[in-house]
Amino acid sequence: MFSTSTQKKHWTFTGETQITQNKKDTNHKYVNKHGGANLDDETKEKKYLTFTEERILGRHFEHVLREFCNVFQPPMPKYVMGTAMCYFKRFYVKHSVMDYHPKDIMLTCVYLASKVEEFNVSITQFVGNLKGDRDKFTNIILSFELMLMKKLHYHLTVHNPYRPLEGLIIDLKTRYKSIEKSRIEKIRKLAEDFLDKSLASNVSLVFAPSQIALAAILSSAENDKVSLDSYMSDVLLAGAAPEDVKKTVYQIKRIRYMVSTQEPVQKDQVGPIQRKLEHCRNQENNPDSEIYKRKLQEMLDDEDEIQSQKRMRIEEAEKKAEQELVLGVI
Fold this sequence. Notes:
One of its GO terms (molecular function) is cyclin-dependent protein serine/threonine kinase regulator activity. The protein is mostly helical.
């Protein structure tokens, strides 16, 4: 249940202000950690990505993530895309795009979401949807997967609004006879479009999935010139305290506002920002850098050494057991 979930406890924020402040703090920490602590503001802005530039790049890759999921083969369920988007947004609330390139994290988020949501595709099938060096993509995704899970604190269960939406549609059909079912199906389609659009906003980091689903239903009904006021007052919120009704209405308004007032993706700025990123990104997390390759090789060598020591201990234990057995017979 959402009310007792890690999503509510650890990944639900008070609003855009808190999310923005977290991201600004993350940007500030990265700059100071990577040589910018004693630089003046003008020099910092030239050398590192600003908070605004990080936001533009993040929104661009959120758009790329949705496009990738929408054309994925075999067709990907919407809730998988929703989970992947939640992972991506959560990750960059606490990490700078200068630390981890969003292209690498985006692909890893989608692959991890596919596994968690039991959308069964192999890594070979997954990278088959990508153009370019598929072996390289495979290595990046598999090497970043465990890191991503750790950074998300293994909070991998995501409550998406798609299931609550279905529940509301069923409720409309069974408990509210004032609208014909064909009209409800039209509302469903519009509501699904609303949820798809909501993925580009931060509503999943602020509101319960049931509230987002309800906002989708009400917004869609209004766009189709259908009033659900009596459904809200006489059915859905029947018996609720006036304060609870007032709070629900307020939250619905906030959701609709956040979804409808998203800033557009600024494609013309993405190229220059990405070129700037190449000069200030953390090379230890860049799969193309020599530092990353050396670190990865050291990890593999350490793993080989651990496995070798395990084999030696097993062999020694087996020899000791054989000696004891021989001595016992003699």
